[in-house]
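Next comes a concrete protein, fold included:
___
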Amino acid sequence: MQDFLEKKFQLSKNGTDVKTEVIAGFTTFMTMAYIIFVNPSILSDAGMPWNGVFIATIMGIILGTVCMALLTNYPFALASGMGLNAFFAYSVVIGMGVSWQIALGIVFLEGILFIILSVTPVREMVINCIPMGLKASISAGIGLFIAFIGLQNAGLVVKDDATLVAIGNVWSGTGIVAIAGLIIMGVLHTLKVKGAILWGILGATIIGYLPGLNVTPPFQGLLAMPQFSDWSEVLFKMDVAGALDLSLILVIFSFLFVDIFDTAGTLVGVSTQAGYLDKDGNLPKASKALLADAIGTAGGAVFGTSTVTTYIESASGVSEGGRTGLTGIVVSILFLLSLFLRPLVGIVPGAATAPALIVVGTMMISNILSIKWDDFSEALPAFICLIAIPMTYSIANGIALGFITYPLIKVLSGKGKEVHSLVYILGILFVVKFIWL
């Protein structure tokens, strides 16, 4: 088996081994397992059956992640995108009065368009034309973004009407568990212990059982057989004919536009951390990575879930040494098992996985060192992109603002020849996006 895995995933060539990939897979799984509970909760607000979406979410994860692993040999996991699922439920279904079946049809059509673009040079050109300064800022911005999400999940950053955000109650149960997990991870990382993030998550989960904290839910068994009859309520239920209504064309392209640049941002950000970019700053096998994402989206709609996209939580597995598709295969196996181990997976609280996102954010922010801070025409667009990602809660918005300001500043400062022609085109398209979408 070891020889097969070595040959299939080229472990030695990528400086890794089976043990490291398994630990990386467990770590990625633990940091993103929340989606199998959160996604059904959001989509059920749109009238979709919770149990059916639970199974569909897992099946979408497996399809997209396995495709990514086999097509690219990259350790990236995919799942129903946060933000896109909210857009699906609250803007399209509830806000526009579109049925969830038609909304699934919209996602399916978007996925098909995504596949068509992915087998043409256009998508790879989009990723590879991003200037190096913006690539570094995207990675660092995603680091800030996921750290911010981690602080929110821990209850350490909360909403405030006067200042938008404020510090939460650090002495709450979730705050104590998250801080304890963060300290465990920090110490283990400092000591270079393999699986530091994973051990930190497990340690924080156990601490959550302590009297007075009551953060970790009580253990209620190990196995629960999934009701596959529930899946039939959403499987193949997309209404493609209804989605072809001319009034919905803008919605289809809205999904496509956000999906493209969320995916591009995540691929660039995590690939920068993993060291996949070549000497010219291009991502090898970018088109295959984008194709895997597109297949996940179309397949996810067939299964009965919203847009499937590459997950920024993949960075947690990369930080543990995951470098090949074997990490993704491990993630997929664990999600398959979670169909049957739902009670066990469900006891890991958000407060235990929150510090993992903060630790990964710490690692990804180091990419700011690659930005040319002594060249303001590079530094300012990079900073705008970096800071806009967490501040607007959107990778796509950060990229958009970076693409608008980068060519504009270059042209007005007499450095227009340094800009790739496609960057100008994308900058104009992003301006149009902000005007009409």
In short: The chain has 21 helices and four strands.
